[in-house]
Amino acid sequence: MFTIKNGPFTETNADALLVGLFDKPLKFEGVLKTLDESFQGNLTGLVKNGDLSAKKGQAAVIPTMSQIQTKRIVFAGLGKEKEADFHTIHEAVTIAAKQSETYGLESIAVALDSFVNENVTAVEAAKAIFEAFFMARFHYSGYRTPGNEPEKILKSIDVWTEADAVEVKAACEVGRAMAGGTNTARRLTATPPNMMTASDLAHHAQQLADQYGFDIEILEREDMEKIGMGSFLAVAQGSAAPPKMITLKYKPNEDWNDVLTFVGKGVTFDTGGYSIKSKDGIVGMKTDMAGAAAVLGAMEIIGELRPDQPVMAVIPATDNVISGHAFKPDDVITSLSGKTIEVKNTDAEGRLILADAITYAKQQRAGRIVDVATLTGGVIIALGKDKTGALTNNEPFFEQVLEASHEAGEFIWQLPLTEFDKKRIRQSDVADLNNSPGRDGHAIMGGGFIGEFAEETPWVHLDIAGSAEMSPGVMTRTLAILALS
Ligand code: BES
Ligand code: ZN
Ligand code: ZN
């Protein structure tokens, strides 16, 4: 589907040629000089007249009028050359890809060397371009009746470069895998809840296991009753849909100790239970499995790119609904860890299912745990929707996660967890823990509750309640990069 080519890129007959453009300094050298010559020096004029901007975030599609074989050139504005980094290229290509979408391109060529600068090599640029391009082209097709227009799909990408073809090709594969996993997470999250039940999540995990050779284990309600997963089962007990505790294991070698583990909240629909949500607050709660989706997306990337270290994924999957069997506020439940929990609010269900998932992960030899969850509305109040809120019990491990998030271009901000906070989480007259100790520090109460089950195991909690809405697929790449580092 894509090929690396050395040679004069002006010979490409692709539907469009993608070119990076720095505005300061605007140098008509290299790729641009070659292009300008093909246009008898007219490109320079376009820039001077403002018809073509190289400013960061601006893209332009211009027809070539048969001056060269390709039908049009898509320029991606990169801004100041000295400041342009991996993320600049990522954002510019996202904009260029969206802007050129209406042309129904079936083949594109990339003038890779036009993106290279002192901060970014051709290999890094190739990864940024592929990742951004495939992410930008993602659309959730949904269930509308299809129209008669045949959809045009991209069939080929040629990358023109003077850099090492083998290395560039490998970088393109990495970029494409990153985008693929992210798009999978987006698709899972966007799917309506009647078509994305716990069984559907388990089915998706099974497909991943078959495709990439992961070990898979799915615990059914009866299995969980036997081992005493009382916290997860309390949330699931109102549902007619069978709950699933899904575990995937990626084992690149014999070693299975201190395993890097991802735990994703898989609430396929959150009504709030008897602490029911309002008629407005309930809409959109199909996305309450975005944490599970990020974990499954990351496992897809791990399957594609096969890092050296073992990785485990644990996903507690159920909906949170009401029936005669459902759990109630004031119930006291016993978690897999043995700790008892007073349920003050059935809408604080994420922490209950994650508690047992984390204990289970530890039993399966998790050594470092990252949980990803649309856990609280409170994180949106605290940080807005462009940031993922984090808590940790281990600063060095948090630093590793933070570094991975920087590489992914995903914004994480750590919240404090004090002894005072922990006291509030343990405040109950009838049990060891309280699942909803009041409005103050809402996001911290939620994450801190989960930390009670991580105990001494290095753990990072990522609350994506806001970020998953603004950036679907969020944290997929951060997790994958962490596994690859
Ligand atoms: N799934 C919600 C959190 C959420 C809210 C996600 C908005 C996405 C958008 C979670 O289960 C929940 O309801 N949390 C409550 C906790 C409270 C009852 C302690 C909340 O944040 O209001
Ligand atoms: Zn809830
Ligand atoms: Zn929820």
Q: Summed up, what is this model?
A:
The chain has 485 residues and is an alpha/beta fold. It has helices spanning 30-38, 42-48, 86-99, 122-136, 165-190, 198-212, 221-227, 230-236, 290-305, 350-363, 378-383, 395-408, 419-425, 442-454, 467-470, 476-484, and strands at 2-5, 16-24, 59-63, 72-80, 107-111, 156-160, 215-219, 244-250, 259-264, 266-270, 311-320, 332-334, 340-342, 366-373, 388-392, 412-414, 433-434, 459-463.
Structure in words:
With 485 residues, this protein is α/β, with parallel strands linked by helices. It has 2 domains: 2-180, Leucine Aminopeptidase, subunit E, domain 1 (3-Layer(aba) Sandwich), CATH 3.40.220; 196-484, 3-Layer(aba) Sandwich (Aminopeptidase). Helices cover 38% and strands 20% of the residues. The chain has helices at 30-38, 42-48, 86-99, 122-136, 165-190, 198-212, 221-227, 230-236, 290-305, 350-363, 378-383, 395-408, 419-425, 442-454, 467-470, 476-484; strands at residues 2-5, 16-24, 59-63, 72-80, 107-111, 156-160, 215-219, 244-250, 259-264, 266-270, 311-320, 332-334, 340-342, 366-373, 388-392, 412-414, 433-434, 459-463. Strands 7, 8, 9, 10, 11, 14, 15, 16 and 18 form a 9-stranded mixed sheet that branches. Strands 1-6-5-2-4-3 form a 6-stranded mixed sheet, covered by helices on one side. α4 packs parallel to α5 (165-190) and α9 packs parallel to α16. The longest helix is centred in the middle third of the chain and has 26 residues, at 165-190. The chain is elongated, with a radius of gyration of 25 Å. The mean pLDDT is 96. The structure holds ligand BES and zinc ion (2 copies). The site of one zinc ion has 5 residues, from β10. Residues 270, 288, 345, 347-350, 374, 376-378, 436, 442, 465 line the site of ligand BES. It is an enzyme of class 3 (hydrolase). Keywords: Aminopeptidase, Cytoplasm, Hydrolase, Manganese, Metal-binding, Protease. The active site is at 277, 351.
